[in-house]
Amino acid sequence: GTTPDGSGAQVILSLNRMKRIREVDPVNNTLCADAGVLLADVQAAAREAGRFFPLSLGAEGSCTIGGNLATNAGGTAVLRYGNTRDLALGLEVVLPDGRVWNGLRGLRKDNTGYDLKSLFIGSEGTLGIITGAVLKLYPAPAGRVAAWVGAETPAQVVGLLSRLQSVCGERLTAFEMMSARCLDLVVAHVSGAASPLAGRHAYYALVELSDTEPAGLPALLEAALGAALEAGVIQDCVVAMNDTQVQTLWRLREGISQAQVRAGKAVKHDIALPISRLAAFVEEADLALVSDFPGLPIINFGHIGDGNLHYNVAHAPGQSEAELLALQGEIYGVVHDSVHAHKGSISAEHGVGQLKRDELPRYKNPVELALMRRIKRALDPQGLMNPGKVLST
Fold first, then answer.
1. What's the pTM value of the predicted model, to 2 decimals?
2. Per-residue pLDDT tens over the stretch 170-193
3. Which of 81, 69, 149, 46 is nearest to 117 (CA)?
4. What is the Cα gyration radius of the chain?
5. Helices and strands, counts by H and E, the chain
6. Which whole number is the average pLDDT over 195-201?
7. Which stretches does DSSP call E strand in 192-265?
8. How does DSSP assign 250-312, residue by residue?
9. Distance CA 113, CA 120 (A)
10. pLDDT computed for residue 271 by the predictor
């Protein structure tokens, strides 16, 4: 996002000194913060007020709320609370001409014209600089329970998700999936990691329920999983009954990125699909990659509750990282073509930046692209804001 070109003429702007929590309003369930405040500090300020800010990322100790807004970050709780766009009520933005738009309103309802804040959220700094935000807060959950589930196909995992949504409703906070290869990587590269289940399964799901009233959560989850076992939807499961056990399960999911780094570079895909098409996409893309690039391991994991997969391709044994990256364009073509065929998106929560900028015209509707270019020219006619990102000049 902040990578300059080679001209030497670009300026990188840091907002790290803008770290003020301007206001916490527990009655209105809002928090107003500078854009340079760390996500972890926003979470902490909410906790101090007896409230909860649900955005949660592996980088929450280093990423800023302004960056989260600029990229419309997702994270693990999108299933229940939505992306960052859904968590923002108002923004303060410095425009390319130097004017400041003060839209810091903590209103859930405001039908006085265009929804300007949504225009800047996810724009990756190409339309203006977000300097402050009013964020939604929620009642603090009093308890949570999680389970680790073994299944044999993505279709079974999707079937479990549908069952849990019907039975648990909004208590279902997170639903993550990873392939067996992902768990193998974590066990091999992350200290203290071990599989929670005795047997090996092709796919695993991490399920979490939370509520302001914790009584009954374990029984609810156990009953739902028991019914899924009896129906053959899943093959095995274990329920974490206390916070320490819940955190142990989450470390397995959160350890995938660390394990990937230690295992070497991969061709990464951050994709979104309709949940109903997710299993078919995985089957189709797996077959295509095995056919076109035999021997390349597929690292498939993600926030399946909202249809977001991190569908990555690693280097084969004996293959250099350079040899794998030389195939990146061809691998992108196979995966992104399949995503597009299944009515998905080639970027779910990581944005476009430079890496996917030139891919966008292949998959984005021409009318959408034309509207995006017109908005860019209207707000930033000199092309000052994050040039070379999202849209090619």
1. 0.92
2. 999 999 999 999 999 999 999 999
3. 69
4. 22
5. 13, 15
6. 95
7. 203-211, 236-240
8. HHHHHHHHHHHHHH--EE--EEE--HHHHHHHHHHHHHHHHHHSTTPPEEEEEEGGGTEEEEE
9. 15
10. 96
